[in-house]
Structure formats: C-alpha cells, structure tokens
Design a protein that fits this description.
It is a single chain. The protein contains eight helices and seven strands. By secondary structure, it is an alpha/beta fold. It is globular and about 50 Å long.
C-alpha cells in the first residue's frame, strides 16, 4: 500500500485500495457532494467527476466544503481546486453545467456509481436516477438532517423514489425524510427529533430551503464513502426502500 494510504491498512486491503483508486464516481450537484467528494478522495477514490452549474454563496459556508475566498466562484472550480490540493495526481473532472434532460445520458457514461445531490425543484433528479438505472449504475441519495444523516441507494433493478410519493404529490427531500421517520416508528424505533424538525419546517411562514448543519454534512459524507467502498468491493448494502440513518443524538 502506498504511503498516502498507509493508515488505511487493516480497514482496507491492498487489493481493495487499488480497486477504489480507479473506480469512477459521478457527483450530481456540488453542495453536500462537496464534502462527500473530499471524504471519498481521502479514502482513496481518485476518479471523480463533478457536475454542477451554481456558484458559491455565503449561506453555503455553514455546511459545504467551501471558504469565503470561494464566494461567487463556480462551485465546480472551487471544489476541483480543493480536491487537487489534497491529491494532485487524482483524476478529477469538473463540468460547470446544470444537468438537464438533454445532457444526462452523456454525463453518466463511463461511471460505476453516482451521487444524486440535486435539488428536487424539477424532474431532473428522478430522470437522473432513471438514466442511471438503465445504465446499471447504483445511485446514492444523501440527506442532511442537521444532527444526523440519511442515505438511500437506488439500484438498477430496484424501486424508484417515486414509489413512496402519494398520488397527489411530487417527490422531494421532505417526502423521503417523512418516509424514513414513519418507517422507524413502525419498526419500534421512533426518531422524535426528525418528526419535530419536519413539523417546524412545514410551519415556517416563508418558503425556504430545509435547514441543514455542517454536522450532518460530515456524517453523510462518511456514510456515503462507506457505501461507495462497499459497492466497489462487492460487499452487501441496503437498497431502497431500506436506508441508512445515523445521528449524534
């Protein structure tokens, strides 16, 4: 094992380290993905593609992997520079472009795992999942729950997120979090704190993005990196409608 990864020993074998080094990962979005990308890179995933079209804003700094010097820069540029400063030899590809129904097929080509951290303000996230399923690419969906993280994996032959949406509603992040909360309650492990956050968010007077904390960004990054490792090395994973939930509470 090369010196860079010498402290990975015992946890990660030499063979596994070599496998993940070249394993191509696609990150759709560069918000929470910015933290996931760094965690994955530090474990040894050196073949990472990032696609996003937005810029760094001050409100991103409470939870995303950017600094004040990055404000107003394209997120892909800032994240590319961050990752290259950690490993200059890593194969980092950054595309400053929003994913659209027209370009999804092009961007997913050649990747073995995808992270879907796109905003559910359009049909694109679900189209992204569908295209990945058709190309036999598992998709990780990370959710920042403030004091904890939630991740589910859409597999090529599995259900889509649409399957938990009611007939009169469109799927979004809140639908997934409510599903997870109900699931845990049904199986005798209620997460009261999640329910309370959802209710407070729904009762806000303004239409705002969900509240998120840096704590969950790093929790989710760790969870996703572990799942990426398990998929790449052919270990068992939970598949949607199951999910991973971890918190510090």
């Amino acid at each position: 094992m090369e010196k860079r990864y010498s402290r990975n020993r015992i946890y990660v074998s030499d063979e596994e380290q070599e496998i993940i080094k070249g394993y191509p990962i696609l990150l759709g979005g560069s918000g929470i993905s910015s933290v996931i990308a760094e965690c994955a890179l530090r474990l040894g995933f050196e073949n990472i593609t990032i696609i996003a079209g937005d810029q760094v804003e001050l409100s991103n700094l409470n939870r995303e992997n950017y600094t004040e010097n990055d404000i107003s820069k394209d997120k892909t540029e800032a994240l590319y520079n961050r990752l290259k400063s950690i490993n200059k030899n890593a194969n980092i590809n950054a595309h400053n472009s929003f994913l659209t129904p027209e370009n999804i097929e092009t961007y997913i080509q050649g990747h073995k795992i995808a992270i879907n951290a796109l905003d559910f303000s359009s049909e694109v996230p679900l189209l992204f999942d569908k295209a990945c399923q058709e190309q036999n690419i598992p998709v990780l969906h990370p959710y920042n729950l403030g004091w904890g993280g939630l991740v589910t994996v859409i597999t090529p032959n599995g259900l889509s997120l649409n399957s938990i949406a009611k007939n009169d509603e469109k799927f979004n992040e809140v639908v997934m979090v409510e599903y997870a909360s109900s699931y845990m309650k049904f199986w005798g492990d209620p997460q009261k704190w999640i329910h309370e956050i959802i209710e407070k968010y729904k009762n806000e007077q303004e239409v705002l993005s969900p509240p998120q904390l840096s704590i969950a960004s790093w929790v989710v990054a760790a969870m996703c990196t572990h799942i990426l490792y398990n998929i790449a090395t052919n270990k068992e994973i939970k598949k949607f409608p199951e999910f991973y939930l971890s918190s510090i509470l």
